[in-house]
Each structure stands twice: as C-alpha cells, then as structure tokens.
Amino acid sequence: MPRFWRPVLVPASQILLALSLIALAAPAHAADDANVEPPRVLTITGTGEASAPPDIAYVETGVVTQADTAADALAANTKAMDSMFKGLEDMGVAKQDMQTSQFSVNPVYDQPKDSNQAPQIRAYQVTNQVTVTIRKLDSLGATLDKLVGLGSNRLDNVNFAIEHPEPLLDKARAAAVANALHKAKLYADAAGVTLGPILSIAEGGGMVQPPRPLMRMTAADAAVPVASGEQKLTSNVTVVFALK
User: Fold this and answer.
1) C-alpha span between 121 and 72 (Å, rounded)
2) Between β-strands 154-161 and 56-67, what pairing exists: parallel, antiparallel or unpaired?
3) Vertex 23, ends 21 and 29: CA angle to 5°?
4) What is the model's pLDDT at position 115?
5) Which residue from 126, 197, 155 is spatially nearest to 57, judged by alpha carbons?
6) How confident is the model at residue 212 (pLDDT cuts 50, 70, 90)?
7) pLDDT digit string (tens) for 62-84?
8) CA dihedral defined by 154, 64, 77, 67, rounded to 10 degrees?
9) CA dist., res. 201 & res. 195, Å (int)
10) Which of 64, 206, 224, 231 is the most buried (most CB within 10 A)?
11) pLDDT confidence band for 118 (50 / 70 / 90)
C-alpha cells in the first residue's frame, strides 16, 4: 500500500515565541549600527604645473585658386600645391609630416540686383589645405617664408606643442601630490587634528595651456620672426586622508 506523508503541526505557542525573539533581536542590531561612528577623513585637491619650451609646430597652410571653370581652377591649384610640396621636401620636411586637412571646389556666385532672379555662377574656387609638421623650430620662420614664396596664399594657424608630453606631465603630477600633502598638513594643523594614512588618490586629469610668450625669438634670414613661447601642463589630484 502507498504511504502518505502526514504534515507536522507546530504549536502556535512555539511560532509566537520565535517571532518574539526576532523582534527583540532587530532593535539590538539597529542600535549597534547607530553607535558606529563614521570614519573621520580629510579630502584635499592638489594642483601641479610643469613648463617647457615646445619642440614641435603644426602649420595650417594651403592654396586657394579661382578660375572661370572648375577644371581651370583645379589645374592651377594642383600646380601650386605640387610646387609647395616639392619645396617643403627640399627643406627637409618628410612626406609623412604633410597631410591634407581640407579640399573643396565651390562655385562663386554673382548676386543679382533683382531679388526675383537666381544668382549666377561667375567662377569656381578650389581650396586645398594641408597640415605641415615642423620638427625643427629653428627652421619655422624660413619655412613660413618659403611657403608664401611657393604660392601658398592661405595660412590659418601655427600651433606649438610638445611632441612627447608624458615626462613633463609626470612632473606636474608629482607637484600636484606634493601640493595636496602641503595643504592637508596645513588644514590639519589649523584644525588641531592629526593626519592618518592616505586612503585614496584620484587623478582629475591634465590640461595643456596655450604657450606663454617668451622674449626669445626664432627667426630665419630675418624673414618671419616667430615666438615659440612656453608650454605649460597642469595636473589635478584628489587625496583622501584618514584623521586620527
């Protein structure tokens, strides 16, 4: 014959006793948590800077040509750009340091006096712009002068930079930590507390500031004087100290 399992009946008094014990234990744990004091900490942000003269420059230059037809404008532009590229190579600029950054062919319109008439195309304009990396800043002035002589009629910008900024940024980072330690000690002494161990250090990111002008000038053949200035990198860190 099949066997059937019979349910086990627990007396109501035992259930009530168990619930009472749970209820009594909960406030005790809550009281223990309330008595725990939060850790005392001091959070400080430090800033550090490091500067050095730039060692590389990026020149935005190019040629703009205009003609009655798009083909003529493009042919004139191509001839001028080929001359400019060859001249840069002759000055020692590597091919990988010349990169096209903009190229466009656009119609040039005559606006009619009568607003009811449509504008008429009177010419075509071709723009070819390149970014040239100059690795020898002593030759920058001569390069700018040469570009104009080779037919470049567009010079939009000259940007100075440090090609490998990591070592300089490391100096800024170390200065930022030193600044945070200095301020933490100052605040702790003023508040009458004692600094404990460092709990965390978080980097807030670095920043490159525009070059600051220097009195030193770089010029080639006294053609185009160039002030390379000084590059400044900034680092920020947030340090959390325990307080004893």
Assistant:
1) 15
2) antiparallel
3) 100
4) 76
5) 155
6) very low
7) 999 999 999 999 999 999 999 99
8) -160
9) 15
10) 231
11) confident
- The predicted pLDDT at position 124 comes to 97
Cα gap 226→134, rounded to integer Å: 13
DSSP sequence for 229-240: -EEEEEEEEEEE
How far is 135 from 213, CA to CA, in rounded Å? 19
CA geometry: angle at 174 spanning 172 and 175, to 5°? Answer: 60
152 to 87, 93, 218: CA distances (angstroms): 11, 16, 21
Three-state SS at 226: strand
Amino acid sitting at position 17: L
Give the per-residue pLDDT at 114: 76
Give the pLDDT score at 187. 96
The predicted structure's pLDDT at residue 95: 93
Q: Which two tokens stand for residue 57?
A: 């420059």
CA proximity to 52, closest of 225, 212, 201: 212
β partners of residue 243: 195
pLDDT score at 214: 35
Per the prediction, the chain carries an average pLDDT of 83
CA 134/CA 132 separation, integer angstroms: 6
Hey, what are 107's tokens? Answer: 């119609």
Give the three-state DSSP class for 43: strand
Spatial CB neighbours of 134, under 8 Å, sequence gap ≥ 6? 56, 57, 58, 59, 93, 97, 140, 143
180: its two tokens: 């945070």
Helices of type H across the chain: 12-35, 70-90, 140-149, 166-191
Residue 125: pLDDT over 90? yes
Residue type for position 212: R
